[in-house]
Amino acid sequence: MTNRGIPSAFLRTTLHNGIGRYVCQLQRLTIKFCKEQKQSRGVRDFIENGLVDFAKNNPSVAVYAQVKRHRSPALVAEYLNGKTHIIPVAEKEAAELLEWLDFLRTRSGEDLIRMRKSQHTFSPSIQGAWTPVTNKQVFPPDFTFPNNELFQAHKFTESATDILQRLARKSTSKTD
Amino acid sequence: MVTPSTHGVADRINEQISQNSHGRLFAVIYIGGHQFKVTTEDLLLIRTNRRFPDVGDRICIEKVLLVGGKDFTMVGRPLLNNVRVEATVVEKTLSHRKIWFYFIRRKGVKKLKLIQDFLTVIRINSIEVSEVEDDVD
Predict the structure, then answer these.
(1) Which of A34, A172, B3, B113 meets the CB 3.0–4.6 Å disulfide criterion with A40?
(2) Rg of chain B's alpha carbons, rounded to an integer?
(3) Interface predicted TM-score (ipTM) of this complex, two decimals
(4) pTM confidence score
């Protein structure tokens, strides 16, 4: 499938996150698992050993463990923008589960779709947008073309010849 | 035709910096192998790895190539050391699933991979510039 055919979005954050302080976007985390089946074994292991540490390290996240008998386990994350992300974790080890939790914690909850631009700005230009006459020499209305002044080399300082000519011009104007 | 000398330019820039009258600044930073023209409150999407600082961490971007205001622009040779650009890590996520498909017709060769990159979103918080020394001869 081509890139044009898939859904896309522009870069954004919920409620201008990060302009003031950073707010964790993950609000609620539900771990659904079964007490009996083999495919929930890694989840049960994680609930026994790592879940309390995760909840202590992230006090802003409400963590629930929900028993679903004879169903495959899943992580359900709910975000501040109202979106839900479900990750099926059947047959996953506890260590791998922790990585998926870290992924859910650091996300903003926006859909994982193609980004059209890698930058978002509120002020696109500080010095003004470029136009064809930006930084160009402006000629007065009575300026005549072609003009020899335009074809001379740039001089950054006054040369000795220039100084002598200026002095000569000054002296002649005094005598006049 | 005598063009104006560049003497005194640094003094005029320093005057604006000391009085804090330069207004909003912009900078060109180098991060993640790319150059971005940024100003404060910008969002940047960069390709990183998992070892990038955690969300909520404040980072200082040291590779600043250019800084400018309404009336002046300073270009580094190649970097500027009198500019401090600070940013916050806002999000660490994965990209959408990119399809990598390899196919040779009539040969029974068909490979499909779904690739997801690590992405980081940072917010530019501040661009601060200190006074420059006049090294223009």
Answers:
(1) A34
(2) 22
(3) 0.87
(4) 0.84
